Structure formats: structure tokens, C-alpha cells
Amino acid sequence: MIYLNKQTFDTEVIVMQIIISHVNTDFDALASLIAANKLYPEAKVVIPNEQTAPVRQFLAIYRDSFDWIEDTLVDWSEVTDLLLVDVASLSRLGNYTDQLDAEQMTITVYDHHTPSGSNVKSDYEVIEPVGATVTLLLEEIIKRKIPISPLEATLFGLGIYTDTGAFTFPNTTHREFMVAGFLLEQNMNLEVIQRFSDYKLNPEQQHLLTRLFSGAKTYDKDGLTVIVSAHQIDGFLIELATITDKLLEISGADAVITVVKMEKHVHIVGRGRSNRIDLRPILEQFDGGGHPRAGSATVRRSELDDVLAEVDSRLDLILKTAVTARDIMSSPVATLAPESKIEAAGHLMDRGGYSGCPVVEDGRLIGIIARRDLEKANQHGLGHAPIKAFMSHDPITVEPGTTIEEVEELIITHNIGRLPVMMDGQLIGIVTRTDIIKVLHS
Hints:
alpha/beta; 6-stranded mixed sheet; 18 strands; single chain; 21% strand
């Protein structure tokens, strides 16, 4: 329902029902705004003025293709129904938050972020752990058989594609694939999705990326590498999130946190690639939020050094407990003596289903014999020979507290299938490729 203010007939529109999302609007937020309008056609979509650069580029071409109004045209004190998408906190809506009377409004929320203490008290909400908020709205659109245009399908696809990292982020669910199939049936344009999801940094952004890379501090914690980088610039520069994404990519770290002061405010962006990373304990300290491995916060009128010190002091809180060699190793370990015959070693491996065995002499680990070593000996008719002639010497070992990330790196770097676990010079277990695969796919 829309009412015109008679005193400012040509400039102000009093809108009673509003669909809104967070500032720094990304494609999932934009897609969710338009999708929600399909479900609530009486409401008006307001797109925040602060948008990510790819969204601004998209709207520069398609802004007239969607039904929405400027936030400056809304008398926020008159809003009676507020529908939040891709956000559940009023504090992330922008400068007009103070004009909203939450107690007098009916509030509906569609979101896929984990609920936090800053969430608004809503009258109705759909908050589920899916890859993108637009997924939740699309499921309802499909259920109600509401038609969508190819352009809408493309925008909805952009929301899913970018928020799931092209269906590779761990928050991606089967539900994203289901609705993506529906969008393809509605003639979603994959070329447009590819174009707008691949954002190129401008020279100023490239310069900031270079400064952040050169000034990065590296912390090795419990088998993970965390990078924290801070910088101060004059004025305001957009796309710190994209810059942080690229810093994570080129650094090879498990997590990157950028802390940048722009004008009077300090902006924090966190990105992670390990499932042991949860950035929220840092970001929520500054009233920010997001996902465990992607989020942001803005600390208004603050000093860079103060914020950076607080970030550094909370780094231990973002790491989940490591899985170690002790947790996944097989024990006790079947071993062979160096004088054991090739044929006997083969029988032992067949019975136990082993692909290799440690070789121990006088309680001391001296080598590893693999099934392929036995096969090589048998090909030459040497089944009677001792295994010491074919075993690999000086095996690489790990300790019980070695993390699974470190174990995996050793296996990849040295192309080996098993790592003996040693404690006080004694063999206490063994970790194999199979053990790693079980953990990765559990």
C-alpha cells in the first residue's frame, strides 16, 4: 500500500510495506529482494545505496528491469511491515535504522546466516543453513508455481553462484542444485552469470591488495596459517571483501583477516578456507557477522591500532580443535623384521588388507615396505629374498599431536601412502591415505 505525502507530493513516498536487505548489498541480497517481491507483491523493494561493485555494475545495466524504489523516497517512520532478506539484524540496514520503530512493526525474516544475539525479534522467520538466502525464497516460488522471467532467473542464479563459490563452499546444500536446475529451465543466462561473478580490481584496489600482501603478518597456529593484514588509506575504497578474497587466494593461507581504516571508520573482513576456521568470534565482537568462513564488521570512529590489537587478541578463538594423528591412526601396528621374506610379507599384507608395513629391528623403526615393492620383487622371482633389500629407508614420521592438515601436506609433498606415528622413539600407530580420506569425507 502506497500513500503520497501531500506536503512533498513530488519527492517523498510513504510506503507501509518494505522489503530491505543489508548495506554493501551483494548478489544474494539483491536476488533475495527481487524474489521476496514475487512472494509479497504488495510490498516495495528498497535497494540500499551501498552495494558491492559487481552489483553496481549489474544495476547500471538492469536497474530499470526491476521494480524498486530509492531509500530516500521512504518515510521510514511510517513503515508498518518490514521484510528482511539475507539479514536478520536491524543494525546492518544502514543509516535509517534509527528511524524504524521495531516494536510497532510486523517483521518477517528470510536468512541463511546462523542466528546471533543481534537478531531482531521477528513475527515470522525462515532461517535455515543453506548456501544462499535466495534458495529459501525460490523454494517457495516453485511451490506456489509463481512464474519468473529469464532475467529474474539469471539474477537468482547469480545470487546462488556467488554465495556458494560456484557450488564449492561447504555451506552449499543439495537444495541449491535443485533450484539451480529449475532456474536453467527458466532460461537462466550462464554467460551473464560468468561475466558479473568475475570481478576485476581497479588500479586503486590492486594497490591496496599489494600493500596488504606486503604488510601481512603470518600466524601459524595448531597446524593452520592465519594472516592478518592492516592498512590505512585516505578516503573510501569499495570491495575490501573482494580484495580479501584475492589475498586469501594468492597467500595460500587457511584464513585471512584484513583490517583497513578508511576515513573515520575501521573495516574488517575475514575469509577462511579450512573447516576449522570460524571467524565469527572476532567479527561479532565488533557487532559484525556472516558465515564461519566469510564475514565482516565496521567499527565506527575508531583507531586502526586499537582494532588491530583486539583482532590479534582473539585469534585463538577462531580455530576449532584440530583432528590429530592420534585421533585417526591405526594401532597396534603390524610390523615386519628386515629379514622377513618377500613371500611372507605378502601373506601378512593379504591377511590384514594392508598396502604397506613398517619394518622394525630391535624396537627401532628402520623402514617401510609397500605392496608395490613386493610386486616388484616377485616380478623378478625374488619371493625368497629378505624385505630389507626392497624397503624404503629413513621413513618420514609424525607425532601423535601432528594435525591432519600437516599429515595431508606430508602425504602430498612426498607422495607417500602411510606415515608411522612415533612417540619417545617408539612406533605407536600408523596413518594412511585411507584414514585421511575417511576424515575428509566423513
